Amino acid sequence: MKVLVNAGPWLTVPPPGYGGIENVVATLVPALRERGVSVVLVSVASSSLEVDELISVYDEGQFTELQKPYNQVMGIAHAHQARVVAELRARDDIDLVHDHLEVVGPAVLSALGGPPVLHTLHWDLRKHPAFYGAFPSSIAVNGVSESQLARAPDALRAASLGSIHLATPLADRDVRVSRGEHLVVMGRICQLKGQHVAARLCQKLGLPLVLAGPVSGRNTPAELDVVAQNPYHPLYGHPDVRYHLDQVSRYLDGELVRWVGAVGGQARDHLYASARAALFPIQWDEPGGTAVVEALALGVPPVGLRRGCLPEIIDHGRTGFLADREEELAEWVLRVDEIDPEECRREARRRFSPSVMADRYLELYEKVTHRH
Questions:
Q1: Is the model's pTM score more than 0.70?
Q2: Mean pLDDT value of segment 50-59
Q3: What DSSP designation does 141 have?
Q4: What are the structural domains, with CATH classification, of the chain?
Q5: What is the percentage of the chain residues whose pLDDT exceeds 90?
Q6: Is residue 30 reached through a cis peptide bond, with omega within 30 degrees of 0 on the bond before it?
Q7: Which of 15, 121, 195, 368 could form an SS bridge with 22, CB 3.0 to 4.6 Å?
Q8: Quick count: other Cβ atoms within 10 Å of Cβ 191?
Q9: What is the mean pLDDT of residues 229-255?
């Protein structure tokens, strides 16, 4: 089987740090190729993932362009998708398209004909009610959790073949370091992730907390200072910047609560693996939960609010704790040493390995091609 995997034009595959969809693609593709699948990746030219063929429009990721007004960036996704269409029209060796480009991907591919398409939904399915409410029946979709699909419009659920939980490379996550006392929140700094809740909680409990992740594409405190000190900067009013400055920074004292910026690679895994627990005080119905899976793989007990996909990933009392409100979250944080790190690792191997995800996707590929 030869599959065209459309990762979009936003970040390299794998990404240098933050990048949810690109990390998923970078995890899935090697496992597919181990199973004999030939992969044509459509991404940006600087992607370093080993594939059978790489196709691109842009040399570098276009993620930072998303901060500009819509009328200046609307052509980026369409130029990328136009190349996908041109490629599919010029060749007849593609057995299936696995698309990850939000809205633009299925909107364009549904009118093309050609090989069958499986479109993976990575986001909040209430974002585009007009589109998802009349989703094209020619495109098959899958979600990344059952809770995500439960909130989908009827037309989208009708096109769904179910959900496949996200995975993480386990070999890369076998980091054994001494556990420290700090807690960690890993991910983009934004209202939805609830870093202010974690910071408030840890200050109240007197527990050290490390916040790691970018703020609107700014990867270091110095980069963010450039924005914060200039009211005329294009990002000064960005919601993530305002959230950090107005709700998170008040708790940053450089000792008990710290923001260390974006952390990637081995440094990220060591920061995670040495943590006493990973906090997920999410303020929305998280659809995928990649960071939760990564915590489990590193033997770090996750403690979060009972929302979105977290109840599907965390087995309360065995691999982590779930709370219904902030006060209860504090109670479980104090009991985190009851969770066995090895049990977390075993759960990651059993449910969230790349091989498990690849096998599930191969089953969907067969269903989609057979139906087509």
A1: yes
A2: 98
A3: E
A4: 2-167+353-371 (3.40.50.2000), 171-350 (3.40.50.2000)
A5: 86
A6: no
A7: 15
A8: 16
A9: 94
